[in-house]
Design a protein that fits this description.
The chain is of the alpha+beta class and about 150 residues long. The chain has helices at about 15-25, 35-40, 45-50, 60-75, 80-90, 95-100, 110-125, 135-145; strands at about 1-5, 25-30, 45, 50-55. Helix content is about 55%, strand content about 10%. Helix 4 packs across helix 5 (about 80-90). The N and C termini lie far apart (about 60 Å).
Length: about 150
């Protein structure tokens, strides 16, 4: 009777924090196939007798975003509310948040601009991936922000 032992290249080299973050951000549903397990009882590989279904865990992702933002706030000696406000203004981009906290200039996004871009995206998806013609709201946003920012 042999059991499956993973090789070194099959084992992830993560720190405890990275591993905790990985498991907080997704659910794993593991189903055992008993027939395959019994049929391969002389050499058992987990991939032969189980099915793993992974689903994202939004609560875990938000938990880790909050942890990262708290670390950024303490790193730059800023209030958490101020960091959250700037994070929203830079369209929830942590790299741009750090740039802004370091004093670099940045492009501020307003909620109406986010809604305009979201509506444009929904119209594009509804048209089978073809952007709508002559969308005045999007054209205004394009002129104000530029194609690179959008």
């Amino acid at each position: 009777f042999k059991t499956y032992a993973p090789r070194n290249n099959e084992v992830a080299c993560w720190s405890l924090t990275e591993l905790e973050k990985y498991y907080d951000c997704e659910f794993m549903n593991i189903k055992i196939n008993e027939k395959a397990f019994k049929a391969n009882n002389d050499y058992i590989k987990p991939k032969d007798y189980r099915t793993v279904v992974r689903k994202p865990d939004m609560a875990g992702k938000f938990k880790w975003i909050n942890i990262e933002l708290e670390e950024i706030a303490s790193q730059y000696s800023k209030d958490m509310d101020e960091v959250l406000q700037i994070f929203e203004q830079v369209n929830c981009d942590k790299n741009r948040l750090r740039d802004r906290l370091e004093g670099n200039t940045f492009c501020i996004w307003k909620k109406i601009e986010d809604v305009t871009l979201c509506n444009y995206w929904e119209q594009t998806k509804a048209n089978g991936g073809v952007p709508p013609q002559n969308n005045a709201h999007y054209q205004c946003l394009l002129e104000e922000k530029g194609a690179a920012e959008i």
